[in-house]
Amino acid sequence: MSGNHNEKLEFLGDSVISLVISSYLYKKCKDEGELTMMKAKLVCKQTLADFALSLKLETKLKLGKGALITNARNNEKTLEDAFEAYIGAVFLDSDQNFLEVMEFMKPLLEPKVEQLLLQKKNAQENNNDTSKPIIGPQDVPLMTLPLEDPINKLQTWSQRKTFGLPKYILVENKEVEKKNIQPQFTFEIVINGKTYPQGTARNKSEAKKLAATYALNEIDDSITLVK
Length: 227
Prior knowledge:
By secondary structure, the protein is an alpha+beta fold. It has two domains: 7-127, Ribonuclease iii, N-terminal Endonuclease Domain, Chain A (Orthogonal Bundle); 142-219, Double Stranded RNA Binding Domain, CATH 3.30.160.20. The protein has helices spanning 7-26, 32-42, 45-54, 65-69, 76-93, 98-127, 150-160, 204-219; strands spanning 167-174, 184-191, 194-195, 199-201. It is globular. Residues 134-147, 176-180 and 221-227 have low confidence and may be disordered. Keywords: Endonuclease, Hydrolase, Nuclease, RNA-binding.
């Protein structure tokens, strides 16, 4: 389409986003290695596209006929560029006040950073946990769990459908104290008012993963979980 484009705003926004995220993580992370890892996950195309969806920027885009035909409105690259341009505009509208942009982005960053920190904590706990998960009601063996984290995959699907974040509800928590019997945790997922099958395991992280796997299976049978 003819008219103005957002390339200069994207250039500016890209730099502002990088600085905001670096400054935010500086207060959250313990060392340079963790800073680098977390920043890479926050500035990636998928995360910035998710931020754009959270702000419903896809509804504000003006696209040419070719882009409309290819459904570019929901393309990750298009959404990433839109978010960068938007933050560039926020920076300029605030008279280049970095702190105001930080406050604007904080509601987007906080839940994502907490999610990443929780994933890291769960991964560390799982590395120290020799117990094996209990198979849930759908009899999906652990070997069929996707290499891609099903929790992230389900969250991306839900946000792109504008359903918000999936709700994980602990529906059962049996702490069995008898010898040789492990605790059990059961989670079910609610998305847009719909409840999906439960996942049960001997730790909360695996129970949530199983529940997310079952939800993905029910949402679309064509999703390949085995890799």
